[in-house]
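[Help] Beginner question about ligand-bound structures

Sorry if this is basic. My supervisor gave me a protein sequence and a SMILES string for zinc ion and asked me to "get the holo structure". I don't really know what that means in practice or what format the answer should be in. Inputs are pasted below exactly as I got them.
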Amino acid sequence: MRNILLFSAGVDSFIGYYYLRENYDVPNLTLMYFYNDKIPYAATELKYVLKFRDELMDKSADMRIISYPQYYSNIPCTDSFIPARNLIFALCTCFKLYNDYATAYLQSDGINIYLGGLRDDRIGDNSPEFCKHASKLLSASFDEQVTVKSVFDYKLSKYEIVEWFLKNHPLLAQHLVTHTFSCYSPINNDHCYACRACFRRNVSLQNIELLPFHDKQKLNDWIIEMKEHKDTYDPVRYEATLNYIEKLKQQEGEL
Ligand SMILES: [Zn+2]
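Answer (accepted):
No worries, everyone starts somewhere. Holo just means with the ligand present. The predicted complex, written as structure tokens, is below.
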């Protein structure tokens, strides 16, 4: 059995690494990072991925850094949406294993490909339905049992996986601040603290450190939008978001 975790050094895949090792039997664990030099945050993301590999990753695990397929990396994408990303990653992972471990691959009893899928962050190519279809399609295509699934089985929210991590690894809490990265437009190789990716990360890490958010206009717009569409949000995510904003306001009031 080969076990693959799609890794990006974001909060989800960072915690996913620990959660996977502690809740599943995952021999031959390989972390796969897909590098796309066409997206503005790739160089900074890669820096964090390597920092994780060199400073925190267990030596029994393996990490592969793979370039995006040439054509795919030219597809225009918005900040938050890169079409069919997880399908391409899963497909490239199978090809990579096929090339690298041809003999062992043919004798293996299947491949598990883990995404960091959350309850409150389901999108087209990161959802239980996607996993079911991708598993079928890849198993048929490679004549091998390929299972695509979420480390968290889509049962936990971003806030809850951080809670899990704090409970099980209290001494490593600060690493979530120093060793995770998600930002759409980094400044000087670090977070901009003004984009939606930074905002979501800040919300999830609020019990470790109250990280700043610089774009007050965006913050106000998002609160209005959230309150208007309260029913469409996961309740835990909704609560955590408002709590973070409240704490920020309190802190500014004190300044
Ligand atoms: Zn940012």
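A couple of things worth pointing out: Residues 173-254 form one domain. The two ends are 55 Å apart (CA to CA). Feel free to follow up in the thread.
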